[in-house]
Amino acid sequence: MLALGFALFLMRETVSILLLALLVSTIFDRPVDALERYGVPRILGTILIYIFTFVLLAFLFYTVIPIAIIEFNNLLKNLSGILEGSGFTISGGLSFFNTDIKYFTETLLSGGVPLIEILGSLVGGVTFILAVIVLSFYLTVSRDGVSKFLVAIFPEAMEKKILSLYTRTKTRIGKWFQAQIILSLVVGTFAFVGLSLLGVKYALVLGLIAGVLELIPIVGPIFAGALAVSIGMTSSLTLGVYALILFLGIQQLENNVLVPLVMRRHTGVHPVMILISILGGAQIAGVVGVLLAVPTAVFLQEMAEEWMSVKSKKSGGKLAV
Fold first, then answer.
1. Percent of the chain with pLDDT over 90
2. 290 alpha-carbon distance from chain centroid
3. In which domain, by residue range, is 244 found?
4. Final residue of a domain: which of 153, 179, 208?
């Protein structure tokens, strides 16, 4: 077991590629299966879904994201002024763009090894992303590609349990992902439109932050609301109060309408467990860890429920699941 753990540690980048590819394939399986039911060949359906995803990302990168970056930079400068006025100083952290651009320029001008290191890191990152895309594509094109992969790497005696565990995990992840995307889009849109109508500065980036932080249970919405209220108060106390009322209204809409409506087929994973998984994943593996946090939480819960079920059967049903 120790040797296996050490081997996985040495191959952590390969394992990360594999896990991310499995996650992407699991998410894309649902729309590809839907297209296949309408008579679209699986390989064509997979290509269409990937093209749609790339076009959507390209559209965001060329339209929304440049504006958001400018607003975000201005937002950081605004926050720097607020906190410095309160006796705090975070100018070092907020001068990220200026400092890094200057360092990057000096590094390039110096030539030699630093440039090679930068190019190496860039190539490594691109290779990582391409590997995930290619592997996930092949897993999606093949009907039950992930299931076939799992059957190939696990002993025959474990096949039935592994496939059952994967199917349940896949279903939960798919439902969670679908529900969270809807919640993030609705909350982010309402925040952006509401803040724009109120005249709060940086409405676009605040709306994006609200949508993204919706993925983080409990803490995310609170932080997004507090940030918007703080920015509103830089203009006037009244605007800050209006921003607070807006986010309280969005929370009421989410808790009383969206969550019961959208989360009827929720993963069943407790929000606190998801939060802990995201924090732990970020600490262990950075961005990759965050991306794998929820699937890992779902998988661990499925394993725990499987273990509890087995224990319950062995004890004659005395152990509650």
1. 21
2. 6
3. 155-265
4. 153
